[in-house]
Amino acid sequence: MQSPLIHIVSRKEEIAELVKKTLGKCGYEVSSTTGDEISIENMNTLNGSIDCLIFDKDIDDDVKQAARDRLKEARVICLPSLDSAGMVIGDAEYMSEPFRLSELTKFINKIFENRK
User: Fold this and answer.
1) Residue 82 has pLDDT above 50, yes or no
2) Are 87 and 69 in contact (CB under 8 A)?
3) What is the Cα–Cα distance from 8 to 64, expressed in whole angstroms?
């Protein structure tokens, strides 16, 4: 069975690389959009077969919505949301601070436990 496709959107490339490295070790295929690449236009061109979107806490609501509009079936995880008063996506999972890669890995493993 094909490994789930995960895409992270983070202003900080180093955060995206840590997530990619960690989840890659677990057999997930992970792509990212980082820094100046983050735009509504780029969200509209994401691979339509992405299974899970991960948004870092500093992503604008309009960018999140563009990605959600493009990937309606994808699960959504929003990273540290303790101080987040921004957009609430009805079916999104919000991870609280302090954020740990091990918690993210466990969470994603649980989401996709029957698919890998």
Assistant:
1) no
2) no
3) 11
